[in-house]
Amino acid sequence: MERIRIDISFKGTDYHGWQIQENAFTVQEELNKALSVILRENIETVGCGRTDTGVHARHFTAHFDCANRIDDFDYLKFKLNTVLSKNISVNDIFRTYPGFHSRFDAIKRTYKYFIHTSKNPFKNEYSTFVPYSLDLKLMNGAAALLTGNRDFTSFSKLHTDVADNYCNVYEAGWTQTDGDYVFTISANRFLRNMVRAIVGTMLDAGRNRIPDFAGIIDAKDRSRAGVSVPPQGLFLWENLYRE
Q1: Scanning 76, 130, 193, 221, which has the fewest C-beta atoms within 10 Å of its C-beta?
Q2: Which fold has domain 110-241?
């Protein structure tokens, strides 16, 4: 039995996220089927995390076990990219060490959220339109308060199955180019809906509607934070591993 790592990108518009669900079309389901057909055995991938409906991934890592030895990974990559839909691309696939785990071995994950403030029909699938001006200094002031090992209950979906809501945020900040804004955040882990809730709350801060962003974090109360932003502006940007 060999353990294989696969790195993919996907456009999440037409999918109900990564993870297999009943009566829903997901990235994991499509990838499992393609691998099973090509390798002629039942393949079940394990992803680095789960993404919400409509969220994209520039760099998503998964792993799977394969009973049959794979001799030509370049050819396997070619075959997969032929079989998979245009919304998924295999960027790399290779043999890894037996204990590798795409979720638990990740030491750093980075997300980006894209916003445009001038109406543009060509950006709507990959960015969120915000029809008002934002104060970059206020938003970066709020972002600076996110760093460190904190309890992010105020930005988490309720009733999840995690042991705790602590995440160690390494960096968080906004950049601006013309009327476009990009929020970048890196951490050891993320809670469900966390980034979208943070962005929604910081947009309120950028309109000077939140006098005490630190108080929202400390409250550990989802009702204190802002409304989650739509999924299409969110990208899982990068995963880093020990290896």
Answers
A1: 221
A2: Alpha-Beta Plaits (3.30.70)
